[in-house]
Specification:
2 copies of one chain form a homodimer.
Chain A lengths: L6 H18 L6 H8 L6 H4 L3 H25 L6 H17 L1 H11 L8 H21 L8 H20 L11 H15 L1
Helix pairs in contact in A: 1-2, 1-6, 4-7, 5-6, 5-8, 5-9, 7-8, 8-9
Chain B binds a DNA duplex (30 and 30 nucleotides) through helix 2 and helix 3.
DNA sequence: AATATATGAATAAACATTCATTCATTTATT
DNA sequence: AATAAATGAATGAATGTTTATTCATATATT
């Protein structure tokens, strides 16, 4: 065998990619900047990724899949109420934002970039989970019949992320995101879904 | 005088810029693409704008200022209830989306790009308007005392835009945005603000 | 003819990507 | 145990492409 792979390099590349995009925007991030921030040679990236786009794609879908799995796990517990599911899911978003602000920010940026869309099977998985949540919520009386699957998707998966990140960059009162937001976001969403 | 300025060119450049960014993303949009789509020579742009960034900036802030003025106008009517104000504002967002999908989409993309932020005086203007809306809403009983200025800002200015655009690209039921969304969005937001 | 608009080829800088080379580590041979 | 050979990791200068921007020139208008 030859020299050992420095596993840390890939980790550093991922982190540097996210940080550079968060700091300068996807439009001005270059491979050279990423390599420099990761303290890795310019060409190293191409050993693992076929190029810049693939690297960014993989980082984004990694996170999308993690979110998908997280929700799937919460549903696998067969809850009879959506309140605890929603509260846990929102708490996780806030904890993630607090613990990994760069990754959280990176994900938020790409979430609104039309060039990144869900692939077919992930789409189907999300649709199935929303259907499951809807039937639980209707049975428990927490969700109005009028709520569409899109509404559920928007209020559970998109809205909390948006809220957190707009609060982060907001222009008003000094707004630190904290655990109080878990309760208020959860109750706001539950309230919306009831009507 | 000499040759007349073809005023239409600037309009075409603006439209081509928005369309190109909507179609390919800000990260892959080039001056050459914009010029081609606008049917204008490559260098023409530099007659009016100092460069690519300034062009995009100006387009974005034009829209931000228009939104600001729209809300300022609605407030200048000295309403005693926020319901009609909110309903009109949301209706305008939906009409804008339906009539000018490209411009609407362009604005939505940049709204979530951290490189585009409100300048000082626009910030102040927004803060003032939110304060005014809050005092009207509290007097009329439509807004809970607990609602922060950030909440108002988020639910009035950000949330409807996000909702419309996520519905546009959504993965569920065939979702055509239409005038029904005006009523449902308005009542959802009023409901949120009450609690 | 004078003057300002408009063009697009030319330029130079920035960029992603490649690849010859170096280097660290393991394995085989003595 | 010492040394050599083999392997594949890692580098970063070189390459060719893409890009924003400039500017000499052409064109239209008065």
């Amino acid at each position: 065998m030859a020299r050992k792979i420095d596993e840390d390099k890939i980790k550093r590349i991922k982190e540097a990619t996210m940080k550079t995009i968060v700091d300068f925007g996807i439009e001005s991030t270059t491979i050279a900047m990423i390599a420099k921030n990761a303290d890795v040679s310019g060409g190293y990236l191409y050993r693992t990724y076929s190029g810049k786009q693939e690297l960014i794609n993989e980082l984004f879908y990694e996170k999308v899949i993690a979110l998908n799995n997280e929700l799937a796990f919460l549903l696998s517990l067969n809850p009879t109420s959506i309140q605890p599911l929603l509260k846990t899911f929102i708490a996780n978003r806030i904890v993630y934002f607090l613990n990994e602000p760069i990754a959280s920010n990176f994900f938020y940026q790409l979430l609104h970039n039309d060039n990144f869309k869900l692939t077919g099977d992930l789409q189907q998985s999300v649709v199935n989970m929303m259907q499951k949540i809807k039937s639980i919520g209707i049975k428990s009386g927490e969700i109005s019949e009028k709520i569409t699957l899109f509404n559920l998707y928007f209020y559970i998966l998109i809205y909390p992320v948006d809220y957190i990140h707009f609060k982060r960059k907001n222009i008003f009162e000094s707004n630190v995101i904290n655990t109080n937001d878990i309760t208020s976001l959860t109750s706001t969403i539950l309230n919306i879904l009831k009507n």
